[in-house]
Amino acid sequence: MPPSASSADHLPPHQPAARQRPKSPDRVLAEAEAQWLFTEQELLHTPSVQDGMSPEKEKEIRAKGINFIRQVGIMLKLPELTLSTAAIFFNRFLMRVSLVDRPGQKALHHYTLGATALFLATKVEESCRKMKDLVVACCRVAQKNPNLLIDEQSKDFWKWRDTILLNEDVLLEMLCFDLTIEAPHKQLYEMLKYYQVHHNKQLRNAAWAFVTDSNITQLCLLCSSHTIAAAALYSAARYCNVAFPDSPDGRPWWHVQHVSLEDILKACNYMAANYEHVPIKPGHEGAQTIYAITSPSAPILHQDTTTSNGSKIHHLDPPHDDRAAKKRRTSDSATAPTSVPRHEAASRTVESHGSEEGEVEG
Questions:
Q1: Considering only CA atoms, which of 244, 225, 186, 234 is closest in space to residue 206?
Q2: pLDDT tens sequence across 278-319
């Protein structure tokens, strides 16, 4: 019997696979996600703010809760999609429920809400963990002791377990059982593959860090996941000095991805402001954590520019590398800093945004 021919023999040699045309966001998912999008003015009038809490304090508590989710997720080795989904559940819940205690009603603690959101996200993303492992990880992160031994018959174990199971129904009710989440990480990777830059490690890590850092903010309540992914690609391309070509019919790349440049800059400016004003202040609860939140590859704010109408534009700059700085101090020669160009809204290519290179640390 003659040997069977390989299934790849019919393919021409050295010919890459044809790129698929980017699909527009699913209409049903887009409509469902639009119900959870708010304006910046509406984000300043959340239930907690209406009950007397300052917006800065609420942002700080949100950051602590999502930081708790991330630390527990890392300890349980959960995928990034699950952590992103839990952060979205966390932020959406706080648009309906206040963090301020009321007479005869104690508000839900942000650690308890974070644990419940993560428990629900593991089911939605089909990355379930045993309840025992989840409770032990929550106890260790809450007490800031990664080696803490927890007995299954202890009071703390059963308190965490019963609290998570009880508040799961409350979380589902406040979310209106809307559990379909289109994670920006997945859409970002599809964009990277479309432009065949997914093997560019520096670009990929910078874009991924942007999306991951956005989870600690309220950006998921301000922009759609597709816009967040496009903004991450935009900021990473500026940082890595990568330009994407126009389509054959002359459209810029963001139009090909069905995103407006105005929305992209809106998301970038929001993240730039959050890089400058970190929600978790040094010395406060959650400032020193077991694991790091952000990646060193994330762009940071360089300077502000005031436009003619009085609005501010925040410019993104590459992160500083401490190890590179130490080498420069020990060497005789030093490089001069380069100026940072302003955003060019009419430009159809993504320009470089600084010459200093940052290194992504593991």
A1: 234
A2: 555 544 444 443 333 333 344 443 434 444 444 444 444 444
Question: Tens digit of pLDDT for each residue in 122-159?
Answer: 999 888 888 899 999 998 898 888 888 877 788 888 88
Q: Are strands 300-306 and 312-317 parallel, antiparallel or unpaired?
A: antiparallel
Do 191 and 257 contact (CB within 8 A), yes or no?
yes
This prediction has a pTM of 0.69
Question: Which residues, 6+ apart, have CB-to-CB distance to 197 below 8 Å?
Answer: 203, 204, 242
In the numeric block, the tokens 């890089």 are attached to 275
Residue 331 has pLDDT above 70, yes or no: no
Domains annotated on the chain, with CATH: 30-175 (1.10.472.10), 184-274 (1.10.472.10)
- Which helix or strand (DSSP H or E) is residue 142 part of? helix 131-142
Rounded alpha-carbon distances, angstroms, from residue 139 to 85, 119, 148: 21, 14, 8
Q: Which residues contact 102 (CB under 8 A, 6 or more apart)?
A: 51
Are the C-beta atoms of residues 301 and 315 closer than 8 Å to each other? yes
